């Protein structure tokens, strides 16, 4: 799982039919200090996250597991909203 | 998934038998300003995208998760056509979350 920050959403009326009811969010990956790392990705939202929130997401074929469908072409999905992070520093 | 723009089509007569009937499109990756990035992929179309359209591409094993591409040798699939992008500005994030 990776940390990210939701920075926007995407409207797509025409998409793979199994994905009709899901939100697609733009996610900026961040590190434990919440600094931006790497390229922005698009992830399916399964928890109701909104712009600005820090979330964690899963990638690869596991991304379809939290969705209530048998299979769908999804390679990233948001599975939780972060309340706080504790690190040694 | 990543954002991309359809910039062409691939015709291929001789291919893996399982891919007969597939529509292959050439997709150039885009950033949030819809500016072109370096990566170009060939993706199987599952939504009926056309030239010039902004699309979302799922890659890796996830791309085999459609009824057509299931268990087939595919590693990129177009799974949505983008109508609109809504991106939070740095100023908005700063104002709302004090970042």
Which terms would index this structure?
heterodimer; A: 89 residues; mainly beta; OB fold (Dihydrolipoamide Acetyltransferase, E2P); five-stranded mixed barrel; 6 strands; 0% helix; B: 99 residues; five-stranded mixed β-barrel; 1 helix; 42% strand; elongated
How is this structure best described in words?
Chain A is mostly beta strands. Chain A has one domain: OB fold (Dihydrolipoamide Acetyltransferase, E2P) (Beta Barrel). Chain A is 0% helix and 40% strand. Chain A contains no helices and six strands. Chain A has strands at 2-11, 14-15, 23-29, 41-45, 54-59, 76-81. Chain A starts with a strand and ends in an 8-residue tail after the last strand. The mean pLDDT of chain A is 88. In chain B, a hairpin with a 5-residue loop joins strand 2 (24-30) and strand 3 (36-45). Chain B is built from one helix and six strands. Chain B is mainly beta. Chain B is elongated. The relative contact order of chain B is 0.24. Chain B has a five-stranded mixed β-barrel with strand order 1-2-3-5-4. Chain B has one domain: EutN/Ccml (OB fold (Dihydrolipoamide Acetyltransferase, E2P), Beta Barrel), CATH 2.40.50.220. The model of chain B has no long low-confidence stretch (mean pLDDT 89). Chain B starts with a strand and ends with a helix. The interface between A and B is medium-sized, with 31 and 36 residues.
Q: How are the SSEs ordered, and which strands pair?
A:
The complex is a heterodimer of chains A (89) and B (99).
Chain A: E1 2-11, E2 14-15, E3 23-29, E4 41-45, E5 54-59, E6 76-81
Parallel strand pairs in A: 4-6
Antiparallel strand pairs in A: 1-3, 1-5, 3-4, 5-6
Chain B: E1 2-10, E2 24-30, E3 36-45, E4 54-59, E5 76-81, E6 84-87, H1 90-97
Parallel strand pairs in B: 3-5
Antiparallel strand pairs in B: 1-2, 1-4, 2-3, 4-5
